[in-house]
Amino acid sequence: MKKIEAIIRRTRFDDVKEALLAADIEWFSFYDVRGMGKAQQSRIYRGVMYDTSIIERVLISIVVRDVNVEKTIQAVIKAARTGEVGDGRIFVIPVDDSVRIRTGDRGDISLYDAEKAK
Fold first, then answer.
1. CA–CA dist 88, 103 (Å, integer)
2. Are the C-beta atoms of residues 63 and 93 closer than 8 Å to each other?
3. The pTM is what?
4. Which of 36, 40, 47, 93 is disulfide-compatible with 3, CB 3.0–4.6 A?
5. What angle, 0 to 180 degrees and rounded to 10, lies between the N-to-C axes of helices 69-80 and 13-22?
6. pLDDT in tens, 86-97
7. DSSP 3-state assignment of 49?
8. pLDDT tens digits for 11-34?
9. Could you tell me the strand order of the sheet in which 88-94 lies?
10. How far is it, in rounded angstroms, from Cα 15 to Cα 10?
């Protein structure tokens, strides 16, 4: 199992969500986050200087079985890529175990409904 964390532009979230659902990734968490990149900028608007180096993004967190890792990554890339600086990052993190609280199922089976898969 792997945990995939993707930091993407807020404007691309709906496209990524649809791409994940199309790739049969039915469950994920997402959070509004802020970050800073290399670019340190300030902009002046109506005579007031604003710091624009802090950027708002969405962090998507998904735990998938090993067989679904690559299709999940490709779905995010395809939907989130604009070709501009600041498209985001994807991190793949190993997961040792998973437990479904309701049933006590452990491992891969806890990530999907086995009865639905039959």
1. 36
2. no
3. 0.81
4. 93
5. 150
6. 899 999 999 999
7. strand
8. 999 999 999 999 999 889 999 999
9. 29-36, 54-64, 2-9, 88-94
10. 10
